[in-house]
Amino acid sequence: MSLPPEKASELKQIIHNHLVKINIHGKIRDVLAETVRDDLEPGQNSLSERDFLRALQRRGVVDDVMKDLHFFKVDFSFPSPPANIDPARRYLYLQVQGGKAFLEHLQEPEPLPGQVCSTFALYLHFRNQRFRSKPVPCACEPDLQEGFLLEMHREGLGDGNKMADATAMLSISDPVHLVLIKTDTSSETSLVSSYFLDWRTVLSSPSGKTGVAVELLGVGESCKVPAGVLNLGLELYPPLTETLSPDIITTQQSIERQKTAEKERLFLVYAKQWWREFLEIRDSHRSKLVKIFAQDENGVNRPVCSYVRVLRAGRLLESPRQAARFVSLLGLERAPVVGGGGGVKQEQWCSLLAFLCRSKGDCEDHATLLCSLLLGFGLDAYVCVGTKAKGVAHTWVMTRGTDGTVTFWESLTAHRYLHQAIDPDAPPLVAQPRPSYPYRTIGCVFNHKAFLANCQPSDAVELCVFDFHNQSLWKAMSEEALGSVCSPGSTTSLPPLPPLCGPSLEPSAASNQLELEMRYLVAEHRKDLGLATVWDDHMSYVLSSALAAYELERCTGTSCGNEEFQDAVRRAVPDGHTFKGFPVHFLHRNARRAFATCLRSPFCDEIVCCRGDHVRLAVRVRVFVYPESACAVWVMFACKYRSVL
User: Is the keyword Ribosomal protein assigned to this protein (predicted)?
Assistant: First the structure.
């Protein structure tokens, strides 16, 4: 095994330091003098190297040198993978070997021990498997050193337990999706890069190992600008008995690209023809929000139907309403725009993995995820593209019941609205339903295999009839044409669908920690005002049922448990005392940020700064965790004091 020059010099230095430490030169001189005096034959003028080494060995010098050296097998390119691998399965061991040329962090100072700094974390998805690296400080050359063991044929590729050979693996076009996330010192996340790695070059390596330097590009407006370089090592376990030639791999990749390009070209020709027909129906259709394509984080135009898939959450989510609650807990963030634009919105839809890893996105990301989850629960769900008040573009979700009822789901809040169409031809005295939803117009609806544009004379939501089989009301795209570019596996350009991950937070520990921090902040704030703080632990515990009821109401839309809470409070507050409580909801676990927000409310400030006779304070925190470690954080401040007239 040949070592890089820097490793060789490092190894020499280690050996030299060890020899100096045990005074090897002095021992050699003593042995040499003793050997010349005792072992040199009469008439022999010189001592051979072999005789001298034998003398060193005989006197135990070699053993002394060796016993303190601990040898272990080191491969500087490919550290050994975990030992718990199934010998009947094929694995790809992906080794991240550091980054370089992240020039945005060229001037980043070295973080001091214990100092909070911005970090990078790398997320991977491959064939229904997801991984995350440990966070490392942001730097021009970030120290991302991590190994990931990816199983090649989880779906039983081949015959049962038959090992997938090189030819079978060549047909696996699923890329390894890499997403790099930056987390700043205030815990805000941002998407640095999203990259699809074709790993199949390793199939031509005789040793089963290969290295690759991946240039990561930025996202959104910076999708053509390099963000940095990642050094990766790829290794197959067990190694292939027969490898493929590089030409075969290149040819396979070229054929896949050509097939994808041809399917996309044919769909574009069809979409243009469909659009011309739609415009011929009515001149006003030019102004309708009919969105057929959308750009992803890498600036690639994809049909909107490809952003929706049937997504089942396993045991992580129990009902459609809980799914809506989960999606609403992911943060809202508009795509950043460089410079002014007169309020023009930068368009950027995200692949699902990038959205989940960042834990925030625009309304389109929320709507496509919620629609995918509702489809997984067996509902007839669609994403709606239209406007809210003042003509602001917006997307939301709708479901159609078997009885014809139409329900709108707001993916940002988990609110649900029943749609009842207004009859514009009804007599003036006939009572018409008053819409409770915030939506004004609707241009089109779509899901994973349907796209329909609104052909009705008015695109007002309140007048809209959602009879998708009536071709005079809705113009549908061909399901076959959509399937050619949007169904899973139809083209190699479609990002694979990642599974949801369970929460990594332990809710009780997170609740206790945040509650202790809140107590400290309240006590310090009152101390600054010259007020003492006496806590009532029983009253704090009583507040738990209220917080549980609030979260249940957000999930199900029904209120319950309020009577028990009110009765418990009456028992906890003596006669002649006044009780005040203030609940508040957050999507983060930053105690200082939450407390500062609470103090902006005059109701909360009145409780925290309460003055009076026999004042007792209480605070209760409940952290409810959801998939992807999304959090609903409920905090309730309360006080009781003797009323003095």
Answer: no
